[in-house]
Amino acid sequence: MPRRTISAGSVAGSVRVWPGNPYPLGATWDGRGVNFALFSLHAERVELCLFDASGRREIARVMLPEYTNETWHGYLPDVRPAQRYGYRVYGPYAPEQGHRFNPHKLLIDPYAKRLSGPLVWHDAIHGYRVGDPAGDLSFDRRDSAAYVPKSVVVDTAHTWGKDRPPHRTWSETVLYELHVAGYTRRHPDVPERLRGTFGGMVQPAVVHHLRTLGVTAIELLPVHAFADERHLTDAGRANYWGYNTVAFFAPMQRYLASGELGEFKTFVQVMHDAGIEVILDVVYNHTAEGNQLGPTVSWRGIDNLSYYRLVPGDWRHYMDFTGCGNALNLHQPRVMQLVTDSLRYWVQEMHVDGFRFDLATTLAREWQDFDPQAGFLEAVLQDPVLQRVKLIAEPWDVGPGGYRLGGFPPGWSEWNDQYRDTLRRFWRGDPDQLGGLASRITGSADIFGRHGRRPRASVNYITAHDGFTLRDLVSYNGKHNEANGEDGRDGTDANWSWNCGAEGPTDDPAINTLRARQQRNLLATLLLSQGTPMLLGGDEVDRTQHGNNNAYCQDNDISWLDWDHAASPAAQSLLAFVARLIELRREHIVFRRARFFEGRAIPGTDVKDIVWVNTDGSEKDAADWAGRDPHRLACVLSGEAGHHHLTAAGEPEPDDTFLVLMNAANEPAGFCLPAHAAVQAWRPVLDTAAQPDPFCGGPALAAGSIYTLEAHALAVLVEAPPPPTPIPA
Question: Could you identify which of 130, 147, 419, 487 might form a hypothetical disulfide with 460, taking C-beta atoms 3.0 to 4.6 angstroms apart as the criterion?
Fold first, then answer.
C-alpha cells in the first residue's frame, strides 16, 4: 500500500494517511493503525479531525483520501487506541433540498464505540444561527468542537474466559426492568465511586439481591450514549431515562466508572455467571438531533437526506412518528445497515442477550403505514446472529395507526399494555373486567394467537419505568408530577390506580394493610399468568416515586432505589413474597405453558386443560361471564396440561393441578372447592390475606367444602390426597 503524507493544515507537523478500506465502517484498530470509514452519499469531501487526550485541542486535520461505494475512507498508520476524533463534512447547505452540511460543526462518528466529553448546549452546535429570523435556513459559521463529545478509537480486545450466554428459554424467563444509575446510586454496599455505574452493578450485594429474587433477565433502560435535552439542562434537570440517543455503539459515559468498555463486558460476564441474561432497551426510532431546529452533532451533518425520513416534497421538514422530532430512514440501505450492525455489535462484541425496541412501530413503517413484513423486521428475523436473541417490541408509536399490539411477526414478543390496564382495573374493583382478565392471565390468545405465536409473545407487566411504581399504584389516585416543572401537563391521567382510602403516605393501619395486600394480589397475578412476566426494578422492595408517574427527568431521590427502605421489615417481607412466587412459577410448568389453553379435553384424556368455575363450584357458561360475580374469578389449571419432567421410563409426567381464586370485591367470598377429574381435595398454597405469611398453607380441604377468601385477596390451592375419614368415636 503506497504511503502519502498530507499536511495537517494550520496544525504543525504532518499526518501519514493511506487510502484504507471502505469496510468496516467506523474507526477500526487492526494492531498497526486505524482505518476510518464514513458513509455519506451526498458529501463533497470529509475531514477527519484528531484531538489531544483532553479532547479540547485539535492536533491534526486530515482529508479522507478515498471515496468508494458511497463511503469516505482512509488509513492512519500512526493512530492508536484512545485517540479522540470527529468529522467535518462538506456539502451543500440547502435545507429546502434536504441538505444540511456545515463543516464548522464537529460530528460524532455514527459507528463510534466510545465517546469522551459531554454534549454542551451552546448555540454553536446548531447548523443555523439560533435567533435569526430566517431560522434553520440561515447558516452558522461558529466552530462547535468545544461543545461536542469526541469519538474515541477503541481496542475491543477482552478476555471473556468461559463466558456463555445463559440461553434462558422463554417459558422460564422472568424480566426485571431497571435503570443502571438509579439502581445503585444509594446502595450502601457499593463503593461511592462505583455507584450509578456498571461497576456498581457487579458488586456482590447487588448480584446477591438479583439472585435471591430469582429473576432470569434484567432489561436495562437505554445505555447507548444519549444527550440531555436543552430545556432540561436550562431548568437544572437531566434526561434520566435516556431515550435520546447520540451514538448507537457507545455506552453512556457516566455509566462507566473506569471510562473503559471492559467495564460493561465485565458486567455482562458477572450477570451470566449468575444465570441472568442482559437485555438492552434500544432507541433506533429517532435521534437526539430532533427536528429542523435541533442541533447538528452527527447524522444531520453527515448526510441529512440519507439518514432521516423527510416530508416528501417538503424536504426541509422531518416526518415524526415519535413525538421527538425525527425518524431514522430505514429505507436507506446504509441506515438499515447502521442499525443492524449496531445490534450485532452488542450481541457479538458485548455479549448481550436481547433487545427491547422503543416505539417499535416506527421501525416497521413502510413510508407511512405499519407493515408486519417491513424491511427492518425481515432483516432482523433472517439475520443468523439476531434471530437467536430475545426480541421485544414496544408495539406502538404516536403516528397514524401507531398502536399495533399483536401485529408483530412470529419471533417477536411485545409489551402488553392491555394486560397492565385490565389487571389494574380488576383489582381496583372496576366492573366488566372478567372476560378480559381471563384472556390476559392465560396469555392473551385473542391478541397473539395467530401465525403460530405462543403465550411468550405477551410480555405481561403491571408497572414499568413509564408510570407509577407498584407502591404508588396502590397509594395514589392521581399523578403528582410537580417536580417535573410542567404544571402537571406531563404523564398520563389513565393510571387505573386506587389509593385504598387516602392519597399518599398515611399512618392508618387498615389502609396500609390493604395496600400491602393489593401489592401482593397484583404480583401474584402477574407471576402466575401465562406469558412472559416483567417486574419493575424496586417493586419487590416497596419502591416509591412519591406519586410521580413520569420521572424521566428526575435523576435524584425520586427515581433512585432507596436501599435503606429496602432493608425495612415490610420491604423484606415483600421481597420474600416475590421470590417465593418466582420459585412457584419456576417449579410448575402449568404456570408457564408453551402453548395457549384451549378450554377443551387434553388429547388422550377426558380432562380439560383449563376450567373456569363459579363461586358455587360449577363450570361457567356464557351467561355467567355476563353478570354473575363480576368481581370474582376462579379457574382450575390441569396438571395434565403441563408436563413437569420425564419419569424413569422416559414418559412425560404431569404437573400438579392448581385452583386459583380471585376476589376483588369489598366483602369476603365463599368459594365451593370444585371436583376436577380425580381431584378430591385441595391444599392451600398461597393466600394474600393470610398473616403473617401468605405462603403459610394449611390442611387439605375436601372438594365441595367452602374456602372463604377475604375481600381484595387471591388464593392458590393445589390438588392433594383426600383427607382421612374421621374414625367414629
Answer: 419
Judged by phi (left if over 0) then psi (alpha if -120 to 50, else beta), residue 225 lies in beta
**Angle at 28 (CA atoms; ends 22, 33), nearest 5 degrees:** 100
**CB burial string 34-62: b at 16+ within 10 A, e below:** bbbbbbbebbeebbbbbbeeebeebbbbb
Note if the bond before 654 is cis, omega within 30 degrees. no
CA distance linking residue 380 with residue 236, whole number of Å: 40
**The model's pTM:** 0.96
Helix, strand, coil percentages in the chain from 3-state DSSP, rounded to 5 = 25, 25, 50
Q: How far is CA 55 from the centre of its chain?
A: 33
Q: Are strands 681-687 and 701-702 parallel, antiparallel or unpaired?
A: antiparallel
Domains of the chain as residue ranges with CATH: 5-152 (2.60.40.10), 170-285+328-590 (3.20.20.80), 600-719 (2.60.40.1180)
The series of mean pLDDT values per 10 residues for the chain, 729 residues long, is 33 78 98 98 98 97 98 98 98 98 98 97 98 97 98 96 94 98 98 98 98 98 97 95 98 97 98 98 98 98 98 97 97 98 98 98 94 96 97 97 97 98 98 95 97 97 98 98 94 97 98 98 98 98 98 98 97 98 97 93 82 94 83 94 62 86 98 89 97 91 97 97 68
DSSP sequence for 503-522: SS----HHHHHHHHHHHHHH
| 692 cis-preceded (ω within 30 degrees of 0) | yes
Asked if residue 170 lies in contact with residue 234, where contact means CB atoms within 8 angstroms, the answer is no
Catalogue the active-site residues.
358, 394
CA 197 to chain centre: 18
- Length of the chain counted residue by residue: 729
